[in-house]
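Archive entry: two folds, one per protein. Generate the first.
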Amino acid sequence: GSRNGVYVRILSPQPVYPGDHFLLGHQLMRLDNLGPEDREQPADHDQVRMFGTPVDPAWGKLSCIGVGGQPSDVHYLRGGQTTFGRENGDVLFPNDNFLSRRHARLRMEMRQGAMSVVLEDMASANGTYLRLRGNAVLGENDMFRVGDQLFRVRGIG
């Protein structure tokens, strides 16, 4: 129940839900649903649509969370996956030396009409961390973050 939460390093693909936070290097990200302000504006009374660059519809958005909890950047999620990295990917953070060239990815999957979203680390050097939603059982060598402090579990069993 702490304000900033506890983050556990993911070792396998993990489901993520709207409102979940995760860490990539020094980047704090939040997966969000689309709001009414994020949708295409309807045609006017003459059935004329607003002009703009054609894009695939977004299924969600990812907010970079800045100090104080304010979103600093918003990335709309389109297509089946979005890759994050320092040098290679769909969303880049070129000045974050704690990110790998290709660090992690979000995958959107449709199964029997239901959408699921999965966060996956791509063998990054510093890992990808997902904020806990409740209790977690940790094993030998698991890593977790509390604030800026990084911990590794040792001496179990």
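Generate the second and append.
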Amino acid sequence: MNLKLQFGFGMMDHSRNLIDSWGGGNVILSPRDLTCEQLERFSSDIRGLRGGSVWLDPQFYVPRADHERLCSHDYWPSDFETGIFWQGANLQRLIQKLDELNTKLKSAAFVLPGMLAKPIDEDWFVAQEAVIEEARTIKSGRPLICTIALSDDAVKDVSQVGELLERAETWKVDGFYVVAQHPSDAYLVSDPIWLANLIDLCAGLRLLRKSVTLGYCNHQMLIASVAKVSAISSGTWMNVRTFPPDKFIVPVDDEIRQRTKWYYCPQALSEYKIPFLDVAQRQGILESMKPDPALGSQYADILFTGVQPTTVKAFSEQSAFRHYLHCLHSQSRGSSKSTFQETVDSQRFSLDAAEKLLATLRSKGVFGGMRDYSDALDASRSAIQVIISLRGPVLSRAWSTL
């Protein structure tokens, strides 16, 4: 399973640095965060790096959005009427303008616009299928990637997810870009049915022999490897590690203004504010939080040199973000094994090891708050067990061909 970079606020330098250090990779560009001129320049920068490529996320999730930068792009419609937009000239113009922009950016695929489904109903299917049919007339030469954007309630409804999988069998596209709103906009999800349904959806789509990219992810989606997901995508701030639809309507980013540094402890699947590393050092367990050298991240090494972590000025916000993404890149690449059972076993081992370490850390007063994985452990295990029950035999047989 690969990691793509989900572009967000302030990610230009991070993206260039990481793609260069990884020797390749894909950045999913954000019209919300970049002007047309910036999109072109930045796309050229990424494609100029060895193995670098870009996708463009049209971010057409809320067509009546009024986010100034997003709506300023040439492809965005000046007016939107739900019933008539998906037929005739308005839809043709949207697809044509997006094709022109993708051509300018030399994107590796044509990610199609997709409205947020709340719920997944016939009106939503009509819009999805109209977009696909119109895009197929363009003959862009790029793989067509269908956007599936789902509200939290839609993901939690088993019947809606089942109907989506049934309809998707007929969609003539090359892959899917799935973005899903977290329940209550939580960072780490503790709702087992939401998580199980999302992973099952991805497995069903992969079994159609199409690529599946999960967008707006954090490290919890490493478990998507049991569905043989092609890639997950993640970024720096929380609003590119989850999918909050409101970010495409209003430009408010409170979390960015707060500028809190977090250290990602990959073996605990959790993140910690730096003062809690001081506590870990005081309690003699800081070394247990040091990342495995095999992950290849040296961005946080300075926190483990014996100096009190909060006094280490060199561990900057930049270091924290690059450490997170580099570790997640390595974890993603190592998450999918040669068989379904090996992948399941690996993910279970990771969760068990995280639980053991978390218990030790918490017993010594080291807490991650809302980024502590403890409350997400059972939901993650439950989702894996559901996939084993529902898809295990067929995934086992098809694994090497997916």
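Annotation attached to the second fold: The longest strand covers residues 144-150. The longest helix spans residues 340-363.
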